[in-house]
């Protein structure tokens, strides 16, 4: 069973107490990459920065993926933000929160060989706002051929968003899922009769299971009635399914939920609605979309949640179902045109 003090901490407090073992070496490595172009002339420096920012983003992705804590989305976001603050303190502007996450996205969504030397980092920031890869490549080629200014490219990107035929459509499929399904992991301590279980959200517990024999690492088990285990015949991608309650609606596409884990404990998580792009909360459209969500999932409402991976801002992405008929909130938002569809590639 998990340590009670640790479980009682908020997410932010757990993140602060947990630092990647190689953080200082990563910071030094990124600093070295940036310093390699500091002395260049303005034009050469602009071209070199694109390559450097891709390399920095690529290194961040690799280090976080190797670190166990990255499986908690807030942890990964916290590390990226901290890198930005430390680099800003050393070098000044250029390493703000959004720029750091753009570097990470740059490395995730583009190959180094695809980088065009004639485009600046400002061009690429605009291009990363285009979710469809084919459309992005078309715009990139046009920007190169026409030697396009950044302001013109940003206007074209906004046009692509306005012409997105996905508005009012929701092409995603609902994923199946079972409550209480966990993954058995290898336990270095191998306590007699006990199993190490991955409950999701980078949370594990050691539990003595009854009802199943010869359970091997990698198997999926459904835990019921506290300790009774049952083998399940479902793909691993169908595991992450939880029941929970709404703590608060952050905005039109983000909720804070208290989710029940298979061992009976709870975790509070910020969930970003999969496939949903709502207007900013400080706009009139954003406030209306937030009220749309609040009318459907009030504080304390019971919901069913299927979670996926994390987004570039460190939030878990998920599908939320509410009410006695399990209405799919994500789909409803888009079909009712309260928000737009966005392919989040998770």
Fold blueprint:
Elements: H1 4-8, H2 11-17, H3 23-38, H4 42-66, H5 73-91, H6 97-109, H7 121-127, H8 133-145, H9 150-162, E1 181-185, E2 194-200, E3 203-208, E4 220-224, E5 228-231, E6 241-251, E7 254-260, E8 266-273, E9 276-277, H10 284-296, E10 302-310, E11 316-322, E12 327-328, H11 329-335, E13 340-341
Parallel strand pairs: 8-11
Antiparallel strand pairs: 1-2, 1-4, 2-3, 4-5, 6-7, 6-10, 7-8, 9-13, 10-11, 11-12
What does this structure look like?
The protein has 346 residues and is α+β, with helices and mostly antiparallel strands. The protein is 40% helix and 22% strand. It has helices at residues 4-8, 11-17, 23-38, 42-66, 73-91, 97-109, 121-127, 133-145, 150-162, 284-296, 329-335; strands at 181-185, 194-200, 203-208, 220-224, 228-231, 241-251, 254-260, 266-273, 276-277, 302-310, 316-322, 327-328, 340-341. It has a five-stranded antiparallel beta sheet, with no helix packed on it. The chain has a five-stranded mixed β-barrel with strand order 6-7-8-11-10. A two-stranded antiparallel sheet has the order 9-13. α3 (23-38) crosses α5, α5 packs across α6 (97-109) and α7 (121-127) runs parallel beside α9. The longest helix is centred in the N-terminal third of the chain and has 25 residues, at 42-66. Mean pLDDT is 81; it is low at 1-19 and 68-72.
Task: Jot down its keywords.
13 strands, 11 helices, 346 residues, globular, five-stranded mixed beta barrel
